[in-house]
């Protein structure tokens, strides 16, 4: 329990800093030179903070193409310092950097969970008049738009997810994705009878077990607790209302691969690609990593059941990783150039396709991936919901709490109480 309390204190401190320091100037001088009267190139050092380390190779190439474009078109020599922490550490690192006036010029945020508080704190540049905005699909734009109507980031990932399943294993055993918790239990037993491990477990990174929270919240909010988020924001609700998430979480844990706390996302992707588990509590954002291990793997996306109400078995829809420009950047021109280059008419199509991300713009002409089509079947049937707006600090706590619960260090009630406390701490500094 001490670990949870310590984590809450750190989160509260960082959130307080975030709320209080939004308008301070960035004292870090990122500009190495200026335009000379003789027309010599300007040299600019651009700092980027993007918590997608598994895509470093792709970003390195795209950034190199951007650097070449800036030199050719504007005679600007751009040097990019790219920082790519893991998802578990990124939020805390970024809050600390922003609070200490060391803001990156460009940084990644979760569209639903983080943009509102970072915008309120004054950290985000208004991008509404930038060319990329007119290229965004109408279904995507709201996720990066503030409550007062300003576009403040360019999205990278739009998501339609629940869990991943191995289609070959399912087809060979005559299985279909279950619509209720009882049906999931039957699927688990059929897999075990045929010497197949039902689930890949990978809990080394806390953000992975926390995925059960937005799935549970979305399912239950859309069927039983419509005003849950609103009441939590008023300190009137409790996570005890979502205690049903432990039913599916316990089922997964009792029927999964070994040594979960030693297995991170990349190793989990390799295990799933190798058929070591028929299902994985994970989203299709790991598609590129999975297919790198096994290019022939046929996998699908399905909604995770939480109870025996089939109407609560829903696909999560939303936007996650998005790139914002620091309000205090001293390299605004080049930062904006890169933000617009993310949706470059010529180059972004191949970039997004290589990342295995969903199309987000009318300049993306590549065909949707099979797992996207799987999810869209549910969406067209009305079996989906918009990703609920849960504070990132709360998600961080549920990740750590569920790690500890899996390890037998915390009870269900311990986890739920810690989450209630985390949300109340968030409310105190975001009124």
Question: Can you describe this structure?
Answer:
By secondary structure, the chain is α/β, with parallel strands linked by helices. The chain contains 16 helices and twelve strands. The protein has helices spanning 2-20, 56-74, 87-99, 115-120, 167-172, 181-193, 212-221, 228-233, 245-254, 265-273, 287-293, 332-341, 348-355, 370-380, 392-406, 412-429; strands at residues 42-49, 76-83, 106-110, 154-155, 158-161, 163-166, 199-200, 279-280, 299-302, 315-319, 321-325, 384-386. The strands form three sheets. It has a five-stranded mixed beta sheet with strand order 2-1-3-11-4, covered by helices on one side. Helix 15 runs antiparallel to helix 16 (412-429). Residues 1-38 have low confidence and may be disordered.
Essential attributes:
431 residues; alpha/beta; four-stranded mixed β-sheet; 12 strands; globular; disordered N terminus
What layout of secondary structure does this protein have?
Blueprint: H1 2-20, E1 42-49, H2 56-74, E2 76-83, H3 87-99, E3 106-110, H4 115-120, E4 154-155, E5 158-161, E6 163-166, H5 167-172, H6 181-193, E7 199-200, H7 212-221, H8 228-233, H9 245-254, H10 265-273, E8 279-280, H11 287-293, E9 299-302, E10 315-319, E11 321-325, H12 332-341, H13 348-355, H14 370-380, E12 384-386, H15 392-406, H16 412-429
Parallel strand pairs: 1-2, 1-3, 7-8, 10-12
Antiparallel strand pairs: 3-11, 4-11, 5-10, 6-8, 6-9
Helix pairs in contact: 1-3, 1-15, 1-16, 10-11, 15-16
């Amino acid at each position: 329990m001490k670990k949870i309390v310590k984590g809450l204190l750190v989160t509260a401190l960082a959130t307080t800093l975030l709320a209080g320091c939004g308008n301070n100037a960035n004292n870090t001088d990122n500009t190495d030179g200026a335009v000379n009267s003789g027309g010599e190139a300007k040299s600019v050092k651009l700092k980027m903070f993007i918590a997608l380390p598994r895509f470093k190779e792709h970003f390195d190439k795209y950034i190199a193409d951007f650097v070449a474009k800036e030199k050719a078109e504007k005679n600007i020599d751009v040097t990019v310092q790219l920082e790519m922490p893991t998802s578990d550490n990124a939020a805390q690192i970024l809050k600390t950097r922003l609070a200490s006036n060391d803001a990156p010029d460009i940084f990644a945020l979760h569209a639903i969970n983080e943009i509102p508080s970072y915008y309120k704190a004054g950290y985000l540049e208004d991008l509404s008049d930038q060319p990329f905005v007119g290229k965004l699909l109408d279904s995507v734009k709201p996720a990066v738009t503030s409550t007062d109507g300003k576009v403040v980031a360019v999205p990278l990932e739009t998501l339609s997810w629940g869990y991943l399943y191995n289609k070959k294993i399912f087809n060979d055993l005559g299985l279909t994705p279950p619509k209720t918790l009882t049906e999931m239990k039957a699927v688990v037993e059929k897999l075990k009878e045929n010497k197949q491990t039902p689930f890949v477990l990978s809990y080394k990174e806390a953000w992975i077990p926390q995925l059960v929270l937005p799935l549970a919240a979305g399912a239950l909010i859309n069927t039983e607790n419509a005003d849950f988020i609103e009441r939590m924001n008023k300190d009137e609700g409790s996570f005890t209302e979502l205690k049903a998430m432990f039913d599916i979480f316990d089922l997964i844990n009792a029927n999964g691969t070994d040594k979960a706390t030693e297995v991170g996302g990349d190793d989990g992707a390799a295990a799933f690609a190798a058929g070591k588990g028929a299902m994985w509590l994970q989203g299709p954002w790991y598609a590129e990593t999975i297919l790198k291990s096994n290019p022939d793997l046929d996998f699908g996306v399905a909604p995770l059941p939480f109870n025996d109400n089939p109407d609560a078995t829903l696909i999560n829809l939303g936007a996650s990783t998005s790139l914002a420009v620091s309000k205090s950047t001293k390299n605004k021109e080049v930062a904006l150039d890169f933000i617009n280059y993310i949706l470059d008419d010529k180059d972004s199509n191949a970039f997004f396709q290589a990342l295995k991300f969903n199309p987000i713009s009318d300049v993306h002409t590549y065909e949707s991936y099979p797992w996207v089509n799987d999810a869209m079947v549910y969406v067209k049937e009305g079996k989906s919901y918009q990703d609920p707006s849960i504070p990132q600090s709360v998600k961080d706590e549920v990740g750590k709490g569920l790690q500890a619960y899996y390890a037998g260090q915390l009870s269900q009630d311990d986890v739920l109480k810690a989450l209630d406390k985390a949300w109340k701490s968030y409310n105190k500094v975001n009124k």
